[in-house]
Amino acid sequence: MKKIIRVIINISFIFYLLALVTMLFLGMRSNLWTNLSLIEYIKSSTNIIPFKTISTYVIAIFDGSMNIDIPIRNLLGNLIMFFPMGIYLPYYIKKINKLSRFIGAMTVLLFLIEITQLVSRRGSFDIDDFILNMVGSLIGFVIWNTRIVQKLIKH
């Protein structure tokens, strides 16, 4: 049973990574800023004010100023996208089983992703994406550390 679970986790991890790379870097995104220099693009595509985007989406949900799909997809999508990382990271890297180490590793990983998206012009650097991705991964980490999951993995 343990071997079957390991195989399922390994296969699902490969599919997860492929989906993540596709969503973050290869997805259909129209690049309206191709005529800008990299510095201009970075200035126009960076949000370092925490909760600016999140609050805009939350307000839009309640006041109807935006198609409801947009805020829901962005808020839940960013939470769900890194939820599996909260399980896979401590599964594959045993030293990341402590909360402080997990947060440190996720912080580095998420900042690298945000910076890569920005420099490659495949997205923006949004601190709110970072916050939502981190919360999603922490939810996965908490679930990973439940007795039920740990019993399932060890037996």
| Major sheet details | 2 strands, parallel
Q: Runs with pLDDT <50, length 5+? A: none
**Ends apart, CA distance between termini:** 7 Å
Number of strands: 2
Write down the secondary-structure element order: HHEHHHHEHH
Mean pLDDT: 90
For the CA atoms, what is the radius of gyration? Answer: 18 Å
How many structural domains does the protein architecture include? 1
Global structural class? mainly alpha
Number of helices: 8
Taken as a percent bin, the fraction of beta residues is: under 5%
Query: Which overall shape is indicated by the principal axes computed on the Cα atoms?
Result: globular
Helix proportion range: over 70%
In what order do the strands lie side by side in the largest sheet? 1-2
Protein name: Glycopeptide antibiotics resistance protein
Pfam family, one: VanZ
Keywords: Membrane, Transmembrane, Transmembrane helix
